[in-house]
User: Fold this.
Amino acid sequence: LRESPIYHEQQSFWLCAKHSLNNVLQREVFTHADLERIAKYLHELHPEQSGWLKFNSHKNFLGFGYYDINVIIAALNEKGYDLLWHDKRTGIEDADLSGCVGIIIHIQPDWFFRRGHWFALKHFDENLTVPKVPTTYVGEPRAARSISENEEREYEPKTHDPGFWNLDSKLRHPEYIGDRELLNAFLQKLSKRNRLHILLVVPSVDHTSASSSQPPSSLSSSPSV
Assistant:
């Protein structure tokens, strides 16, 4: 929605990794070409990881995205950020979010029925006034209106207190979560329905916390859409 002050990329092909990075950083920092370049570099650095087929294991071989965690880490490192994996053995309420630029969630794939998915959560310190989209409109077919009509349609504004927002690229618009307590509840509910990893985007400095800069083995070669 044009009136929204929140930068929010929506899903295109299997580019959820790109959308998550840009939504966390709140502008188009990375393009499709940038992530293709990074994936190619990682493949050339360790070609043995691709196995006997010799395909680039860090992305979809057709070039439609589906990037893995290594591409996301390398992309953030280029811009002066690290990605910290939240240790599942501790509750999300214990995670130190001070200095955290944003949160990237990875939902693991469920065999052949659902692909994995990356999406971003972010805290905004100021009150934000965004269009209040009626729930009867969200998810309805677009056939009745063109894309430009959807963008230019006026909605009643609603002001939200500082808090966390869900910037999932599969959403039609950003969704307000609320304060830290509501964020904890959101993530706990999400983890009950999905196998997921919680990753914290932080400035590149030395870290001493319960989180780790190394992703778990289940995530190291898991691409997502």
